[in-house]
Amino acid sequence: MKVAITGGTGFIGAHLIRALVDAGHHVVAVVRNPDKAKPMQAWGVECVKADLQDEPGLIAAFEGCQELYHMAACATVWEKQSETYFNVNAHGTDTVLKAAKSAGIKRTVVTSSGGVFGPSVTGEVSEQKPRDLNYFNAYEASKAASDLVVLRHVLEEGMHVVLVSPTRVFGPYLWGEPASVSLMIKRYIHGNWRLIPGGRHWKGNYVYVGDVVQGHLLAMENGRAGSNYLLAGHNMSYGEFFEVLSDVSGQHHRMVVAPIWLQMAFARFHAFVARMRGRRPDLTTEWVRRGNYHWEVSAQKSTEELGVELTAFREALIRTVQSHQ
Predict the structure, then answer these.
(1) In Å, how far from its chain's centre is CA 121?
(2) Does any domain span residue 156?
(3) Residue 320 — very low, low, confident or very high, per pLDDT cuts 50/70/90?
């Protein structure tokens, strides 16, 4: 089968492409930067240069494809103009789906974000639970807007589009920007990470990249049009996370807790220095505030409706650590 993908140069996209190629599919990757696409070309992937706003270019790229995975997004920590997030994530999704319909694509899976559902202030987060707080940043808000774009195409255009929303993804690195959790794991096992942000008690949801890929494939096969599936993994505190990481890696480091107030102060200082040097900050107060809450998420819908089988956390962490050694 001929399958199209946007965002294939990213961390999750690389693993998804590997799975699609291994399954015998002809993969067409829409890319903005052909230089970043060189690794996938070695796998026999057909790369087509096009932008998310280039509807004619997208239609040409999607020609003959039966399925589409739309993963491309603006997920940076900071943009000079917040409109950039909406132009890429919401308007870009709209253009991609218009092109998909024109090209005759039958089924589409769009990658959203678990962050859209917010923290677990009043209980474990699920697809049915209303969000407890306002969006923390423009990225979350723009992904929520993108989700509404998907629903409009399903309801008004009759398209078969399914949403999937990964939580904190980790796993071996193939190419693309490593997921933040994977980067933290890598730095820890090399002795370069000693920080626990916020406190040992704060809980988050961690999902193995192989399970996220499995979720995408099963959403394409079994997902209901217009439905959103949280691709969640295991809920655990930072203390529990680093305890298992220490055990499986054999690295036992004394960890330092950085309270939220200290992180906020550092984020303000870092943003000031970055602006003075004309650089993009790696941390902002909007992102730090997210760490002042639990982010416990239910995987029930994706496991029951899609059939996702979760990898045990310890096993997933062992695979990740081995890939960095």
Answers:
(1) 22
(2) yes
(3) very high
CA distances 287 to 17, 77, 136, 252, 293, Å, are: 30, 7, 7, 28, 12
Whether residue 62 is contained in a domain is answered as: yes
Pairwise CA distance, residues 199 & 183, whole Å = 19
Query: Can you give the pTM of this predicted structure?
Result: 0.95
- CB 170, CB 212: distance < 8 Å: no
- Name the least confident of 47-56, 163-172, 192-201, 283-292: 283-292
Q: How many CB atoms lie within 10 A of CB 277?
A: 9
| 274 confidence band (pLDDT: 50, 70, 90) | confident
Q: Is the pLDDT of residue 4 over 90?
A: yes
Q: How far apart are CA 165 and CA 161, in angstroms?
A: 13
**Does 208 fall in a domain?**
yes
Mean residue pLDDT across the chain: 93
Residue 170 corresponds to which tokens in the numbers above? 């980790």
Domain hosting 43: range is 2-177+204-235+298-310
User: Which residue pairs, CB below 8 angstroms and at least 24 apart, start in 81-89?
Assistant: 82/138, 85/138, 85/139, 85/141, 85/142, 86/138, 86/141, 86/142, 86/145, 87/53, 88/52, 88/142, 89/139, 89/142, 89/143, 89/145, 89/146
Q: What is the CATH number of the domain that holds 98?
A: 3.40.50.720
